[in-house]
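User: Please fill in residues for this 174-position structure.
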């Protein structure tokens, strides 16, 4: 085992990953919900969701925004194990397929790069756990998140995203 693989170092790395991923996602949701950080707010995002076939647009936009904020906070705080990552994965499945898929991979062409990175980060944290510097560790909850539970929760997150995709209706034609 490498000298870098001790619990304190791994936990510090997980903390950095959690804080960056979690708080960026909180900001991403706040753009949609409140219009902060250059976002369009609920009205603008709701109109965009309507154009994508998610109706009522404001309700879907609010749900997506709140999921990003909740998932991001759970990850940043390191609480409730795979629940936050599963919420993130659910929202990113919808974003990747409904908005970014047709544009290729990279963000420069509005491709799937950003939602893929968020989902992969969420999946990695769901599978590794949050480390010693997390609320799960402080509250003694780490033992609840067995690999079987983590995979089940991740599966539910993916299923939730797919269900949202099936809720889409073709945009109304004028």
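Assistant: Residues filled in for all 174 positions:
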């Amino acid at each position: 085992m490498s000298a870098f693989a001790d619990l304190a170092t791994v936990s510090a790395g997980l903390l950095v990953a959690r804080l960056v991923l979690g708080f960026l996602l909180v900001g991403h949701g706040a753009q949609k919900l409140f219009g902060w950080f250059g976002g369009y707010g609920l009205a603008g995002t709701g109109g965009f969701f309507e154009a994508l076939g998610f109706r009522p647009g404001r309700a879907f936009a609010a749900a997506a925004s709140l999921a990003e904020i909740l998932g991001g906070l759970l990850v940043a705080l390191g609480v409730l194990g795979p629940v936050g990552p599963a919420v993130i994965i659910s929202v990113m499945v919808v974003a990747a397929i409904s908005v970014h898929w047709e544009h290729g991979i990279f963000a420069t062409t509005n491709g799937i790069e950003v939602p893929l990175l968020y989902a992969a980060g969420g999946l990695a944290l769901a599978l590794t756990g949050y480390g010693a510097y997390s609320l799960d560790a402080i509250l003694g909850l780490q033992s609840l998140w067995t690999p079987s539970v983590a995979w089940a929760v991740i599966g539910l997150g993916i299923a939730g995203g797919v269900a949202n995709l099936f809720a889409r209706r073709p945009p109304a034609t004028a």
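For context: The mean pLDDT is 93.
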